[in-house]
Amino acid sequence: MKSLLFTFSIVLFISCSSDDNDPTIVDHSSSIFTSYIETYDRPEIDGIESFKKIKTGEIIDGKFHDYQLKTYFDNELKSEDEFQQYVYSNNKLISIYPMRESDEATKQDLFYDENNNFTGFYWEKVNRYYQIVHKENNIDYFQILTGNFDDENSSIHQRYILKFDDHNNVIKAGLDIDLDEVMDFENKFSYDENDNLISIEMSNGESTNITYSEIKNTKAHILDNSYGKRIRRLKCSEILGSPSATIEEIKKLEFSTHLSTYEVDASLELDTSENNFYTKRTIETDNENQSTETIEFITQ
Questions:
Q1: Average pLDDT in the 73-102 region?
Q2: Torsion sign (Cα): 167, 191, 211, 242
Q3: Any idea what DSSP says for residue 218?
Q4: Distance in angstroms (rounded) separating the CA atoms of residues 7 and 90
Q5: In 27, 41, 54, 175, which residue has its Cα 20 to 30 A from 131's Cα atom?
Q6: Which residues contact 233 (CB under 8 A, 6 or more apart)?
Q7: Total-model pTM
Q8: 8/218 Cα distance (integer angstroms)
């Protein structure tokens, strides 16, 4: 790591224990943040104009909300727009808009039963219905349907099976190709006492071990608050359970509560609070064009 700076301006909040099956429960330890700024910066190189993109977003009650996006070429403002991204009702996430596509045709609508259990979502852009079936022994099915949830002619196009531990971490995931309720390929995952992903074993034989720092992954905490921990993992079933997924794709999901030692070492700049959440982090995204990405979490 090229520089490690520590700030001590944030008051320590005591986090409450919670049942992560309920998407309305929030990890209050990360609720101290009120906004964030993400900056992508590519300097001018060999006559190619510089480019900068700045995303400024709201964090309310520990959850991501709307954001503003500004783009610059050669330090001149070219566009400025506001977008929806996360929409809530009764403290539950009910709609998600993909980046820079804040219109009705691109959103994903999430559905729940009367007990607040996540039952599926619909993505209008691809006209696809995704169904969640909760089975016994901490097993959930993630099913891609051929039609509407209520269409009697709708059938299961593809099924992924996920097995969770008691902390809603995925410990096993795989495709059920012939729909016999048995995984045909198994990707396996192990965690430490802090719910950090420490071991990945892919069905193709590839494996890796991961070590962690004491620095908490602020973005991961807020994403889990926004979706609900189990829901966020279920929405990534097609990666977690894929026989062709790579270890790097799994790591990029940012499911761990802390930054790995690799992530710390790869940081060009890293600031933390007294309760060990990172408040600012800069990484290099492309060595050739010297581009960087910075995310900063703000408390007021």
A1: 89
A2: negative
A3: H
A4: 35
A5: 27
A6: 162, 164, 168, 169, 170, 240, 255
A7: 0.87
A8: 16
